[in-house]
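PROTEIN DESIGN WORKSHEET
SECTION A - STRUCTURE
LENGTH: 187
TOKENS:
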């Protein structure tokens, strides 16, 4: 018998002062049996950091990456169906990143493992021609603190001001210090 996804509900309050974006999102996340709490919370963080200010450029939606290997983690399509923004979580190989960059106007990767430096040093030289790519690193200890906030039903507040990012759940909070490894951090 196949294991089924675990459903998580997240009420997300975003106060992105840097982008003048204030929004609330009620999200349902399906966590694949092979996915960790840490990875799911990074998906949620990536959603919050890239939520569009309005729906004029299309909605940002969770993909079926854990069920369909060719699907990205998060996808934003414009109203005509063209890929505006694709977001990957983890450490995809250079072929996958190159393929995504050829299909979408913008690609972001969020890596959160302690092996990020090793992964990135192995593929960075192969991706220098990709101008629509931005690669971010979330420190492993901070992503683990974020994973500790994972519950089946969550209410999270995310505040971003002057590059400082705080995520809280009413009881605990963690400061996330994203590092841009490649690309334009303001894109």
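SECTION B - SEQUENCE
RESIDUE ASSIGNMENT:
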């Amino acid at each position: 018998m196949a294991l089924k996804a675990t459903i998580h509900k997240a009420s997300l309050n975003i106060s992105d002062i840097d982008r003048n974006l204030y929004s609330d999102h009620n999200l349902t996340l399906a966590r694949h049996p092979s996915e960790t709490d840490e990875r799911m919370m990074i998906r949620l963080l990536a959603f919050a950091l890239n939520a569009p200010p309005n729906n004029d450029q299309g909605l940002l939606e969770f993909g079926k990456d854990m069920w369909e290997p060719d699907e990205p983690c998060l996808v934003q399509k414009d109203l005509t169906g063209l890929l505006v923004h694709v977001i990957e979580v983890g450490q995809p190989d250079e072929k996958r990143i190159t393929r995504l960059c050829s299909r979408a106007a913008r690609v972001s990767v969020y890596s959160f493992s302690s092996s990020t430096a090793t992964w990135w040093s192995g593929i960075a030289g192969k991706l220098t021609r990709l101008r629509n790519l931005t690669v971010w690193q979330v420190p492993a200890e901070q992503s683990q603190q974020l994973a500790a906030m994972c519950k089946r039903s969550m209410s999270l507040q995310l505040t971003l001001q002057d590059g400082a990012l705080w995520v809280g759940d009413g009881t605990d909070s963690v400061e996330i210090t994203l590092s841009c490894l490649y690309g334009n951090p303001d894109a």
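SECTION C - NOTES
Residues 24 and 152 are 18 Å apart (CA to CA).
The mean pLDDT is 92.
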